[in-house]
Amino acid sequence: MNDQLQKFLFQQAPVRGEFIELADMWQQIQSHHDYPVPVIRLLGEMIGATALLSANIKFDGSLVMQVRGDGPVRLLVVECDSAQKIRATAKLDEKASIPDNATFTDLINANGKGRCVITLDPHEKIPGQRPYQGIVSLAGDTIAQVIENYMKQSEQLDTRLWLAADNRVIRGLLMQKMPSATGADGLSESTSEDEETWQRLVTLASTLKTDEMLNTGIDTLRHRLFWEDDLVVFEPQHPVFHCSCNREKVGNMLKMLGEKEVGEALKEQGNLAIHCDFCGQTYTFGQADCDALFAELPAGQKLH
């Protein structure tokens, strides 16, 4: 199976779409964790959604989606950059028992206090620039509905998502109604024909069933849904699993903690073992390693 993200346009209306299919990289992400079945499904859908959204960012950087919950799933994080390099992780309440039939609400919005945070983070920032961050409540029964509501509020774009995931594969479809043509007065002109086409396409896509998405390749799905429409189909992108952690970044994190706090931790533990939740890599720092880190800093920056 070829991991791919496939963009396409409808020639007869201002509507764009994207299909995604992920298997190999999804197996790599799962190999670092042992999640319950409902968490696999939820994290997979969130990976698909993040990759679909990130395909439209107009800068060199990353889109990070975080869902903070008040159920047995405390945190879900997916990061995807403009080159479709993806990493993801979930943090669970260690004491919680998660049944196989747990719903989205059961998992992450049990008391209605869950939040979705989407961050756009350019790699090369101009002085004073900060990442853009949007926060919305978890309004909806699925991650797709949460993101649709987010896009409507923050981008004022009609966006629809269909997502499916199990332990084998992630598949998804995103469709967006783009701004209509600009008239002589400089304002967008949305025609009734454009609106009718949008509604027709959404109705077609809404016929997709979860089992159908999990067991059918995206080329076949696209043909089944839109065989009567004229499409412009672009060369696919190929998402990959990639974790950006490294020893230097972990060392910088220890510097931020300060020499005093790191020294106290070393006395307690002997060595510091810092584990990456995304890729499973462990970085070990002993006394000599930490001495070398803080020797690089001016005296005023060593103690916090």
Kindly describe this structure:
- The chain is of the alpha+beta class and 304 residues long.
- It has helices spanning 24-31, 37-54, 104-108, 143-154, 192-205, 210-215, 218-226, 247-257, 259-269, 287-295; strands at residues 4-10, 15-22, 61-68, 73-81, 85-92, 115-122, 132-137, 158-165, 170-177, 231-233, 240-241, 272-275, 282-285.
- It starts with a strand and ends in a 9-residue tail after the last helix.
- Mean pLDDT is 88; it is low at 183-188.
Q: Element order, helices and strands?
A: EEHHEEEHEEHEEHHHEEHHEEH
Q: What's the total helix number? A: 10
> What do the pLDDT scores average to?
88
Give the termini distance in whole angstroms. 51 Å
Write out the strand line-up for the largest beta sheet, numbering strands in chain order: 7-6-3-4-5-11
Which blocks of ≥5 consecutive residues have pLDDT under 50?
Answer: 183-188
Shape: globular
Q: Structural class from helices and strands? A: alpha+beta
The total count of strands amounts to: 13
Share of helix, binned: 25-40%
